[in-house]
Amino acid sequence: xxxxxxxxxxxxxxxxxxxxxxxxxxxxxxxxxxxxxxxxxxxxxxxxxxxxxxxxxxxxxxxxxxxxxxxxxxxxxxxxxxxxxxxxxxxxxxxxxxxxxxxxxxxxxxxxxxxxxxxxxxxxxxxxxxxxxxxxxxxxxxxxxxxxxxxxxxxxxxxxxxxxxxxxxxxxxxxxxxxxxxxxxxxxxxxxxxxxxxxxxxxxxxxxxxxxxxxxxxxxxxxxxxxxxxxxxxxxxxxxxxxxxxxxxxxxxxxxxxxxxxxxxxxxxxxxxxxxxxxxxxxxxxxxxxxxxxxxxxxxxxxxxxxxxxxxxxxxxxxxxxxxxxxxxxxxxxxxxxxxxxxxxxxxxxxxxxxxxxxxxxxxxxxxxxxxxxxxxxxxxxxxxxxxxxxxxxxxxxxxxxxxx
Length: 405
Known about the structure:
Number of domains: 2
Largest sheet: 10 strands, mixed
Low-confidence stretches: 145-158
Radius of gyration: 28 Å
Order of helices and strands: EHEHEEEEHEHEHEHEEEEEEEEEEHEHEH
Shape: elongated
Number of helices: 9
Mean pLDDT: 88
Structural class: alpha+beta
CATH topology of the largest domain: Rossmann fold
CATH architecture of the largest domain: 3-Layer(aba) Sandwich
């Protein structure tokens, strides 16, 4: 599981920090800047900057509605529509009103954003996934006027296939917190801490439910107002951000070593080479488990090459298949079907044993089976200290006698 497709996703961030009749909220402007930076960070979500619309201290509410409708229409079916508001929340006729700089608390409906209108604009999205985040007082009133909570959820998600959620900074009759002197409001600050520093959980991706739980835990510990979360159609499972605490750099070509505490028999005492690592997961082979003698059918590879006398046990997956790792001779051209792992270290099909290919190869090692990890699985093992990245030469270790350096 990974985050929604950044190219097909859209985010609209709205904030009001300066008011004519209401108390200024200077931290709201920092909220917008910091949240935009987090959402466009490739290690967190990686939204293209053009896909994040930021509106600070808007004076034209119609223009705000139009921006949200445009973003909703641009979100694709494999993307996510995210709407965020920070500022003063007011109540008019039982409905939630989101303040703009010119909002008059005596007549809030005249120069403010009606939550109901904003919610309806999000329904224009082709994406089945919508996340609405409100950091304002009385946020819990969102969508609850003149109806039960269950009715509100049915209105929020008008089909069985849609997933929608509301993450709210405060309850229906509770104020949100903007501590004086803090860069961010309390709720958004907790959200940003989670996004930018990650979670101690081992999950490589943070779902909406996880985000809500972690933010709630943070605010509870600091004595702040606790947030609310409303979900429809398992919207809590929506992947919202990557857990930045889990290492995500490309480890292809790296040598990993199992810690001494490892009890998993497939990893215990193991030294492994990562053959591929990307968003879909990773595969690798164990380097230090010599196996059966080399089959006679593969002896054609032994001419002019440091003769591999044995197969090596690469891992428990695909035990009926061979993986041939080679190191090319210095200055040799890469064979047509050579797949590089790191530098002149890579793989070749075992069927390519013809002399022209063998002449390019300095070293060969053949593995039976391999190790595999799903998205984020390898990062999780490293983050938990089960595997460590070794500071060694991958080619030297790969072709060392019996897998020893």
